[in-house]
Amino acid sequence: MGKTLFDKLWDRHVVAGKDGEPQLIYVDLQLIHEVTSPQAFDGLRQNKRSVRHPELTFATLDHNVPTEDIFNIQDAISRKQIETLEANCKDFGIRLADLGTKEQGIVHVIGPELGLTQPGMVIVCGDSHTATHGAFGSIGFGIGTSEVEHVLATQTIWQTKPKNMGVHVHGKLPNGVYAKDIILGLIGREGVAFGTGYAVEYYGDTIDSLSMEERMSICNMTIEGGAKYGCIKPDQTTFDYIQGRKYAPADFANAQADWETLYTDSTADYDVIIDVDASQLAPMVSWGTNPGMTGPVDEPFPEIDGDANVQQAYNYIGLQPGQTADQIPITYAFFGSCTNGRLSDLKIAAKILKGKTVDPRVTVLVVPGSRQVKQAAEALGLDQIFKDAGCDWREPGCSACLAMNPDKIPAGEHCASTTNRNFEGRQGAGARTHLASPAMVAYAALNGHFIDIRKVVD
Ligand SMILES: CC(C)[C@H](C(=O)O)[C@@H](O)C(=O)O
Ligand code: SF4
After folding, report:
1. Which residues form the Aconitase/3-isopropylmalate dehydratase large subunit alpha/beta/alpha domain (predicted)?
2. Which of 50, 217, 249, 397 could potentially form a cystine with 255 if both were Cys, beta carbons 3.0 to 4.6 Å apart?
3. How far from 6 is each of 122, 176, 242, 252, 265, CA to CA, in Å?
């Protein structure tokens, strides 16, 4: 019997241990950010250990950084975390995309952008959205701080192999429906736990037709469906994306020849297959307080049916069963994050906002996922389009994706957001988040509520 993509990747990395038990896995790349690394470095110091492979480790600053006046960090905890990572990288000889430098940005944006993320790798980070990197035909997964320390010290990690799930996505996406709607639609239909215990591989003609940035948006949100790992087989789109990037392999042809062997064999079996007909998808909007509480823009919000979680979600979000997304009073819009803060996302939003002004009731933040994204957008004049439309154009970082820096949505306000989590308090205490694609968020910013963009997008 053949092997799945995930099995091939896994088997290449097993250092010790048997199937069905925790196995010691070799790690090709560890990405680091300021939130989940301080205790890991402290642990190394206490145990008088060094970093085993500093050259396979790369750090950035993202969660705590302000997006304006970036060197003037007001919050004492944020400042401490940032200074601590800077000091740790210096002490342990780790490359750091420091504040304000060209390479800095959200960890899951800069890895691919710098060519650090490559097919065939095992990539870890103390961050749950590390599955983003699986879009390149690698194993990417989030780890805890004690595991960050273990990887720093040994370049390996103990993991139990998950089961294989195939998500077959086929058909042409309708107008106004994007990669974000594939993953929101999947989680909306299957719930936030369908992937628990599985590695998810997305495949099919729809996936083949997507750009790397679109593939990353899908793999990014795999964790919101309960799976730690999401992956897509590498193909010409992947190779073209990587070639020429700073850390791309020097012998590219040789690397590509190896990467071309990374796919699921026709004789391999997934443990479970889920089918998604992309041609039937609608633009999605989340109405509740987890990403599973999501539905098509034109469908009424569900009944409570005695479900205490649904009741609690409605209480928090201030909406009622039977209402539709066009009735959500949007007063904030956020473009950014490791899900949809890349150049293609900003291009989509700018195309919609060009020559228009956002609804005066809506405060709009546009936060590029990295400094390279920001510079590329500015070179195209997108910053001016956003500013002319009445949006705030900012410096890169996680920003209002989570309330760990000055960018917060006020209590009770509804924010149309290109991010990946809509938990209570996620964007600020009492803030109400509605997840959607960049195009949906752009039209919500113009109208003060969501609209069914299938009728207006070309
Ligand atoms: C702060 C960090 C550990 C966290 C994560 O693990 O994902 C954050 O990035 C998030 O998106 O919630
Ligand atoms: S942008 Fe959001 S989801 Fe991504 S790493 Fe930052 S906080 Fe986490």
Report:
1. 7-448
2. 249
3. 11, 32, 20, 23, 11
Cβ-proximal residues to 267 (8 Å cutoff; 6+ apart), any chain: 1, 2
When the pLDDT of each residue in the chain is averaged and rounded to a whole number, the result is 98
Give the dihedral of Cα atoms 148, 152, 158, 161; nearest 10 deg.
80
The tokens of 67 are what?
């997006």
Question: Quick one: pLDDT band at residue 154, thresholds 50, 70, 90?
Answer: very high
Looking at the CA of residue 401, tell me the nearest atom of ligand 1: 11
If DSSP codes are grouped into helix, strand and coil, which group holds residue 417? Answer: strand
pLDDT digits 0-9 by tens, 126-144: 999 999 999 999 999 999 9
How is residue 405 written in tokens?
A: 């820096």
In whole angstroms, give the CA distance from residue 337 to residue 335. Answer: 7
Q: Average pLDDT for residues 144-148, to the nearest whole number?
A: 98
Asked if residues 59 and 31 have their Cβ atoms less than 8 Å apart, the reply is yes
256: three-class secondary structure by DSSP: helix
> For 430, left (φ over 0), alpha (ψ -120 to 50), or beta?
left
Contact, 25 vs 158, CB < 8 A?
A: yes
Q: Residue 457 pLDDT > 90, yes or no?
A: no
Q: Alpha-carbon dihedral of residues 296, 280, 210, 293, nearest 10 degrees?
A: 30
pLDDT > 90? residue 238 = yes
| Residue of the CA atom closest to atom 4 of ligand 2 | 338
Q: Are 60 and 96 in contact (CB under 8 A)?
A: yes
Q: Domains along the chain? A: 5-275 (3.30.499.10), 284-455 (3.30.499.10)
User: In the structure encoding, which two tokens stand for residue 55, read together?
Assistant: 């050259």
Which one of 37, 64, 402, 424 would you pick to mutate in the ligand 1 pocket, going by the greatest count of ligand atoms within 8 A of its CB? Answer: 402
> For residues 274 and 262, what is the distance between their CA atoms, to the nearest angstrom?
21
